[in-house]
Amino acid sequence: MRLIYLARYLAAALSFSGKARTIAALKARERCVCVANEERNKLISALLHAPLGSLIVIRCIEELNGNRPRAHVAEDFSRFVIGENDDLRFFTLSAERLIELVVQCVIDLTPYGPDYQQRVNALLACGPSLQFAAEQLLDAPGTANWFANLDRKRQIWVSPDDTSPTRVSFRPDLRPFGQNVPKPRRALWTSTSVGTCPGSWILYLRWGEDRRPPPYHLWQLEIAPTAHVYEVHEPQAWHALCMAFPLYGPDNLIMPDWRKVAQVWDGVHLSVGGLLTTEQVYWHTQQGWTHLFGWGAESTVWLRWAFTRRKRLPDID
Prior knowledge:
Blueprint: H1 2-48, H2 51-64, H3 74-78, H4 95-108, H5 116-125, H6 131-138, E1 155-159, E2 173-176, E3 184-186, E4 188-192, H7 200-207, E5 217-223, E6 229-232, H8 235-244, E7 246-248, E8 254-256, H9 258-261, E9 267-270, H10 272-278, E10 282-285, E11 288-291, E12 299-302, E13 307-312
Parallel strand pairs: 6-9
Antiparallel strand pairs: 1-4, 1-5, 2-3, 4-12, 5-13, 7-8, 9-12, 10-11
């Protein structure tokens, strides 16, 4: 009889333990979902508080609704309204096409345009009305990697003269670029290939202000797993980098001192999401203000040699 009671007790205890584990697992999953939703809402907010972020949402809506007139000047953006019949099926846009739209947005919103500030103000003003569309856009498969950390196996370098990247030829000049552009004077830059598109740099070289004629000489570089890469997915991350390694410019502008950054980090990666939320955004704190400007594309600036493999890819005309 005692054995029967003991068996029943153990069965009940195991059943209770199983239920407890199930409840604990559900609560843990609930916490993860809450954290994920909180992070998603944070990224959407950062997107719509940046001029490029609002512009990419508008351009994607225009891409799906070809009958809409394309917004160009500040007045167009001020009048932009999402219609009831507008197509928001962003899942139909490929990752490659979305990258093209991102680069086009950077080129369109040049700070050298005569009405640049008016366009920025209009884009920021229409941000709240784009909330639902921004949510749908970031849920699309083509944007899944917009805020992802560096893909260490898909880095593309465009050789300016068809030379091979080697440790010997890698000679960065980490002095300031000048003109308040927060870049080192000379470094090795890569961008991440997206599907059949060999990276944002190719698109920028074709269409951007600093366009360069083809052919483009491509190398695929693999990054060492031990390489230390600083990630910029939002303006706070860029501001934190500047504050950790400050180089003070005019009017208390703070930029990274790249020589000091290189003592800790091998490279700094600006993701697609980081580009859209941080480029041309002024970030102020009591310590000063920062302004990421002139990067132009999803990219990584390499301050130290961090490559384990290199592969020559076919030229692109």
